[in-house]
Structure formats: C-alpha cells, structure tokens
Amino acid sequence: MTTNSEGQSMGTKCRVCGGRVAEFVDLGDQPTANGFLLPHEVEGEFRFRLAVGACEDCTMVQLMEEVPQELRYHAGYRYQASGSAGHRKHFRTDAEWFLANELTGPDPFIVEIGCNDGVMLSTIAEAGVRHLGVEPSGNVADLARAKGVQVLSAFFDADTAAAVRGAHGAADVIFGANTICHIAHVESLFRGIDALLSDNGIFVFEEPYLATIIEGMAFDQIYDEHVFYFSAGSVRAMAERFGFELVHAEHIAMHGGEVRYTIARPGARTPSASLDALLAEEEAGKLSEPLTFARFGRNVERIRDDLVGLLTHLREQGKTVVGYGAPGKSSTVTTYCGITTDLIPFVVDSTPGKQGHLLPGSHLPVKPPSAFSDAYPDYAVLFAWNHAEEIMAKEQAFRAAGGKWIRFVPEVEVL
C-alpha cells in the first residue's frame, strides 16, 4: 500500500483480481463489531483502521485493511441469526424454496457456509434432507446442533470443501447468507466451490448490496466482518475470474436491502432477465463511478456531524436518549461519531449474550429490553434500523408515552 504526504492510502491490491484499489471513505480506528466486552476487558481492546476502497479494474468494493478471521469468529461470537422473527421467517422461506426447486433428486445434499445457529438448515433438517453447516464459531454451532442440524466446526476453504466432498459427495446447493462477503480468501473459496459443487448445482448467496449502502447512506454496514461490498457487476467479474457464471440476481428485503446471487458452472443454467435488469440499473445509476464514491464519503461526514449535533442539542435540553439494538453495525456508528455515555447512557438489546457487556469501541453498556420500558426515554436511536417495522410494532407503548425514534440513515431525522 502507498500513501500520500498526509498519510492517506492511495491504493492497495484487490483481493479478487490484483488490481489497484482506490480508497474513498475512512471511518477511523474501529474495534471488531461483535467483540462485546466486559468492563475489565476494555484496556487493550483490538482496533484497526476501517477504510473502504474500490478496485479500478473489477470494481469490487472492499476493506483496505483486513482483520484475521480468527479474531472475528470464535467461541464467544455474539450474533445469533434466529434472534429476529423476520429472520426466522425469511430463512424458512429460503429453505422451503430449495426443498421445492433444487433438493428434489433421489438423495439431495445442501451445504451452508456459515450456518450460524441453524436458522435456515433447521427447516432442511426437519424435512429429512441431507445437509451440512460449516460454521467456525463454536457457540452458535452448538445452538444449531441442538436444533438437529449437522454442523462441521471449521472455516470454509478449499481444503474443507475437499474433505466434505470426500465424506458426503457433491452438493446440489451451496448456500451462504451474510457470510460470503466476510471471506477474504476468495480464491480458496471458489476452489472449494469448484471441488464441492455438482455439475448442475448452484452456489447461492445473499449479502448486503452496495447500492443500498451507497444510495441509502447505510455506512454502518461497513465493519470488520464485511470484507466485500457486492454489486451485480463485481460479483459477475469475480465469478468469471474463478471459472463460474453469475446466472441470477434479485433484490431481497433483508437488512434494509440485499441481493441474492446465484452462480453456476458456465453454460449449466440460463441467465435470468432479472440479472440483466440489475446490471442495467447499476450502469444507469453510475454505481461504480469514482464521483459516486466521493459523494458517499462526504455524506458520511455530514451524517456524523448531524447526529452528534442532534444528540448534543437534546442533552442540553435535558432530554433522555438511549440506543435501541446492538447489532454489529452499531459499533461503527458510535465509534465513528465518538458517541459516549454522556450522549447515550446505554443501549438495549434482546440478545442475552450481549447484555451486561459493553458495545465495542464506544463502550456503551448493553442492557436487556426491560431497561427500555422501566422508564421510557424521551428519544431512542434506532441502531437496528433494518428491523424498524418489527421494533416499532413491538414498542407501541413507547410512542404512546410520547417517545420519539431517531434514525440516521439515509439522513438524521426524528420520527
């Protein structure tokens, strides 16, 4: 990596094609997003520079610096995909689609990369279909096993895939949800897909969408676990580079707007009209243009200033403000904005493993939902904004008590 006279990054090597990556936003020194802390663990907290750039050749948007995967996924990993009713419904629908359309042969087999707590594969297991989750975080893998899901505790790479193929045979479907963008070693990933996928099989993954982040100003989707920020154009280039073909892409509602991609062996499947439409949308919207990225960087700074200004104003007025939800992305916002307990004294979250801990980076205390209703605050910052509808429906008493919600994407506003 080279730097200019001010120490700013001027480029690094693309993890996909080896091209030059030009940085367009720097969110400062950040922690691992799901590295929730106990008070005595604050000293010596791991930090890295959270910055993002775009490859000038294949257009892949990616982190400039990478956190080792062992620091991101481990036995103390806090995220549980089944924690949201919306997630449970979505992944049951995914599983039912696979069962009806792809897992219909005499002895079908599906592999999920990063199965977390078994939120999708539990439906597959209930149907009696052969399956395997590959999950490196031991605690959530155990939760999946308790649901009857078969799990291999490992990182997915070429060696793991070869071992799975030897033990179970070829996979008809390889699936990943909010996981593939986490894997930095893309060459080994695709060698693994090549080793494990059947001739007519499909590799399906659904991930945060670059346009949602750029156009929707969802800068909090940028954190250590998200190494890549996919568009249809960059995924197509990545697939072709490693001997595959992108044959389908469609918008899905997860996390405020994701895209589900389907990759197959060249010529095995007919590319869909929705893929062509999405590629055309990206070109018309100049999604991968340097000016688009530069505008995004300026707008991120504006949101930071507006949010801190609002919270400071409310504090001066004597208003009470708490945070609602402690997803991984909340650490990006609170750390980048320099939000401390004098502005937001605590955050509430329904995940038991996060309660009693401190939010990474900002060290805001995380409390159970009961702390929210014990004495409703005047305002609540909606850190889990991608679950806004579900949360607001559940917390109608807060609104009835005069409470107001604060959103910060795509701009700071009081609801």
UniProtKB/TrEMBL annotation:
Keywords attached to this entry: Methyltransferase, Transferase
Task: Give an example GO molecular function.
Answer: methyltransferase activity
Q: Where is the C-methyltransferase domain?
A: 254-410
Has keyword Transferase? yes
Does Acetylation show up as a keyword for this record? no
PANTHER family reported for this sequence:
BLL5978 PROTEIN, TRANS-ACONITATE 2-METHYLTRANSFERASE-RELATED
Protein name from the UniProt record: Class I SAM-dependent methyltransferase
